[in-house]
Amino acid sequence: MRVYSSMQDGEIEKKSPINLLRGWPNPSLLPVAQIKAASAAALSQPDVSRPGLLYGPDPGYEPLRESIVFSDPIYTKFIWQVSPTYFRVCPIFEDNAFHGRLRSVPEDEEGIDVEFLRRRLQEVEVESSVNAGKPSNLKGFQPWRKIYRHIIYAVPTFSNPSSRTMTLRRRKELVQVARQYDALVITDDVYDQLQWPAQKPSTFSSLKHAVLPRLVDIDRKLQGGTERQGADGFGNTVSNGSFSKIAAPGTRCGWAEGTEKLAHGLSQCGGSASGGAPSQMTSTFMTELLQSGELENHIFTTLQPVYARRYYKMVEAIERYLLPLGVTLPQSNRTVVGGYFLWFALPKPLLADEVAQVAREDENLIIGQGSLFAVYGDERTEDLERQVRVCFSWEEEANIAQGIERIGKVINRMRKGRRSSSNSGTSAEMAAAKANS
Q: Stretch 208-217: mean pLDDT, rounded?
């Protein structure tokens, strides 16, 4: 076991571990009592427990659906990901035969750079026309299946990792580009309900309405919607929802929302049609939580105010310890914020990889350096060299400000060209930090 310490006034100060990388909910926020009551209620009703313990229908548990991917490794050209990206999505795409075909799209203060994406998509189409031939694919024709030419992945609201929120203008433009270039936009809309005022109010009041419409909502309405003349009815967006952020990650239960044709197609994929939808039993528990109002109450009376308090503590610490050192935050003019994370840029010439290593070695502190969130194979990683992600959802509240203060100490020492420890991190430690995120 490594001993972490720093030198202060000639004495060795032992550092307790702080993890600002892990993007999990703090255990104190898990609705244990509510899930226990919901499971007991579901299992005590034969008309719920019997179908719940059997194979479920392909589209999923119907009461939950009432309460609450189409690609081919030959025909689909590229996977376009907003950069920085949620890093665990890269191996998912690569495991589906898209190794070497992941492409990054930068963000600015409005979210995804749509003009950059449009130019790159047009370049691909021009290249494809030069090498014209009848498009081939591995997957056979099925009336419920559509193969898209491109896939676009984004987290539009309170993004992981950048914490940015895509503006309404960019959302509309992205839907229009997806329609133009036969793309399916996959959005992780898992943080939308975890929102609160950007400025700390004197009296906290939960926000019960979404800050912006989701892309799937825009696709339904914009310029005639998904049933407009010439459209095939599948739409160009699908929204991923999850109970991981609003109930508990261990429920392993979520949903995909799109057009009726797209949802039916998803239900007919092999993973769904073989024995029915996953999480059938858990779906009965989540239904009880929803129909009883307990989940809504948990979101508005526990999650929003507690996460808001944690967020304000982290921002106050950043303003106190980091902004005077030249650290900068994105989208500082927002009125509504949320999610799990904050993203900031280090002052030049500091590099996030080095700061993260020193923080781990000298301060027993784990943070997320920007390179963790690069799209696999991306050549533009210099955009992430000075970026850092910190999470306020996992650590104990008392450690949040202390963790930020430790980052400030690291920045100060590195800018002065001196370190408090000569320890060097091992590759095993770096791998463990990423695994624990």
A: 94
